[in-house]
């Protein structure tokens, strides 16, 4: 069964974006995954097609209305068990583990927030899982949704030319990825580490592991700490 992605947005023209190119684009052409971009504004009922209103209690900005968004969600997910994600800077950080869990399913529904946010009642009533791609704020959820889909689609079976490629990347196994090199052997006075051209596969794997641990310790010590806590727990 092909992976089905439905994105609820005020800017459906932003999709599929970069996902229409390269490996993801070819996979879409082959029918390995599909994308349906739903215009939230189509579910407004007033003559102005309003989708937002002022925040209760006052304050700056506007808030997406629960009734309009709920109708959009219901139209997409009736009798549908796909996870419902809401891209939000206050959501749980996206991890490679979560990406793999989503890729193992039959699809995903992603709601792209705009303005100051989404009415809390629709988040609760429609079981939206808030997901963040980082500790920063975007103008809308669309770029974040594209990132989430990119991470998922690339590891769907048969999308990458070599499925083993996904097993030796950053965050797989709790470590950042080791350095990479290719020909020429010497470039601007810098040489490929001799172990990588030794033909000793055991030594190569040992070197890569050591490099991955060192890079993770220097740049993301939190990953090592999390791995230790998980092991001790």
TrEMBL record:
<dbReference type="Pfam" id="PF01746">
    <property type="entry name" value="tRNA_m1G_MT"/>
</dbReference>
<dbReference type="InterPro" id="IPR016009">
    <property type="entry name" value="tRNA_MeTrfase_TRMD/TRM10"/>
</dbReference>
<keyword id="KW-0819">tRNA processing</keyword>
<dbReference type="InterPro" id="IPR029028">
    <property type="entry name" value="Alpha/beta_knot_MTases"/>
</dbReference>
<feature type="binding site">
    <location>
        <begin position="133"/>
        <end position="138"/>
    </location>
    <ligand>
        <name>S-adenosyl-L-methionine</name>
    </ligand>
</feature>
<keyword id="KW-0808">Transferase</keyword>
<dbReference type="InterPro" id="IPR029026">
    <property type="entry name" value="tRNA_m1G_MTases_N"/>
</dbReference>
<comment type="function">
    <text>Specifically methylates guanosine-37 in various tRNAs.</text>
</comment>
<comment type="subunit">
    <text>Homodimer.</text>
</comment>
<dbReference type="InterPro" id="IPR023148">
    <property type="entry name" value="tRNA_m1G_MeTrfase_C_sf"/>
</dbReference>
<keyword id="KW-0963">Cytoplasm</keyword>
<dbReference type="InterPro" id="IPR002649">
    <property type="entry name" value="tRNA_m1G_MeTrfase_TrmD"/>
</dbReference>
<feature type="domain" description="tRNA methyltransferase TRMD/TRM10-type">
    <location>
        <begin position="4"/>
        <end position="225"/>
    </location>
</feature>
<keyword id="KW-0489">Methyltransferase</keyword>
<feature type="binding site">
    <location>
        <position position="113"/>
    </location>
    <ligand>
        <name>S-adenosyl-L-methionine</name>
    </ligand>
</feature>
<comment type="similarity">
    <text>Belongs to the RNA methyltransferase TrmD family.</text>
</comment>
<protein>
    <recommendedName>
        <fullName>tRNA (guanine-N(1)-)-methyltransferase</fullName>
        <ecNumber>2.1.1.228</ecNumber>
    </recommendedName>
</protein>
<keyword id="KW-0949">S-adenosyl-L-methionine</keyword>
